[in-house]
Amino acid sequence: MHSSEPLRARLKKFWRSIISVRTQTYVVTTHENADVDAVASVMMFKKMLKISKRESTVHVVLASISGQTRKILGELGIAVTPETVNVLGDYVLVLLDMSDPSRFVSDKLKKITAGAESIFAIDHHTVGDVVGVKILYMPYSSTTEILLWIAEQYDIIDKILADTKLAMLATMAIITDTAFFSTISEKTFHFMNYLARRIDYRKTISILRAEKTREVPEKMAVLKALQRTMIRKLNDIIIVVTHVGSYESLVANTIIQLGADIVFVISRKKEKGKSYYRIIVRSKKI
Q: CB count, 10 Å around CB of 20?
């Protein structure tokens, strides 16, 4: 872990590199089946960019949104529609909550990646070097926290969180990505304190609790995943591996809450005749 000063300097340098590019056109996207943190990050980044570089044009492109996220957006009254964009001319691609565009399955996202003049990524997942991508990795519990820190360093956080719905979504992003604070970073409660003073926290929690009322397919996914678990103990660490057809994130978070330390949930997917595996990993300690 870097000391706070070098880390702060690195963060500011990265943000300056994004807003100082020659082109005024940006395309912002995230991983497929976008969760709450991914969508909150995309929405927050768009607002930050428009404040920091007013003349810029920002296109949001989402391949797909998770069921949990759609429900939460509906409760908040936020309309986020996966957008098809044909960008003419030069543009910068920004990846949030992911950093490796080779993971994309969507032809739309692959095409956008191939046409980008340059690619930046901001992610809280551990990553290695990715050819052609400038990456800001920070060991936080969510990408939302990274963006909040950038906004705080540039003194625009109050402008960003003046949008109460976005502040509530950011709160939910942190809560869900930490599995209700099962895992936290050094900044988690700093920003939770900041957010809680700007929103109706009880209403925010009530929306999350209502969302936690599972429908039959979600319940079946969890129960089938529990039937298929492989459990290993490594010293004091309990590792669980299972597979499902859908609801991977829900299953992973549930198993963590039941007591596992590390969970791997594997799902075989098929899209446009192509088969691939989606792996969701959750950990309390790592």
A: 8
